[in-house]
Amino acid sequence: GFSAGACGYGEFGRNVNDANVAGVSRLWKNGTGCGGCYQVRCKAPELCTDEGVNIVVTDYGEGDHTDFILSPRAYGRMARPNCAPELYKYGVVDVEYKRIPCRYAGYNIVVKVKEHSKYPDYLAVVLLYQAGQYDVAAVEIWQEDCKQWRGMRRAYGAVFDVVTPPKGELKLRFQLASSVETTWVESKSVIPGEWKAGATYDSNVQLN
């Protein structure tokens, strides 16, 4: 992907989960798949463990009809002890995978204001440390003057934006979707009225 990654995570997308990350094609789901966690294991038992590696989706990628393009670290972590060099020689291997809950001990969902935001006229945010087994389907911002929630646009990947955001402190809520339910969760804290591009703010929401 490009420098920020197709999900918009930037450095977070390269280093989160001990750098066990992946780009995906079919599972990207127009960006909704960003932040999802999967257990991936290769189907070469002489080289690979039964546990495989747990990865976080942080980018879009496709090639050679693959579902996952694993980071070099994650790819090697599928191997049995001392077998990583042999596994790297394959380059492309058959895998099996399943969706698993993301775990970020000690972290709530963090709202990052993207660096290209322009105070006070344009706000773009991305959600980090998205725990549990949910996809973020939508983000809304509270419009105090008319007392209603206003939808933010999915700009790309996991980045949501709004032109002329409300003035003053900002409240967000997130629509979370899983295979069994869809629910709204409101941030328990607010983004300060004088928010800054590049800053991060704790939502005080922790998912299981």
From TrEMBL:
Keywords: Secreted. Residues 121-203 form the Expansin-like CBD domain. Pfam families: DPBB_1 (PF03330), Expansin_C (PF01357). One of its GO terms (cellular component) is extracellular region. It is found in: Secreted. Its main location: secreted. InterPro entries: Expan_Lol_pI, Expansin/allergen_DPBB_dom, Expansin_CBD, Expansin_CBD_sf, LolPI, RlpA-like_DPBB, RlpA-like_sf. One of its GO terms (biological process) is anatomical structure morphogenesis. Residues 4-107 form the Expansin-like EG45 domain. Belongs to the expansin family. PANTHER family: EXPANSIN-B3, EXPANSIN-LIKE B1. This is Expansin-like B1. It comes from Linum tenue.
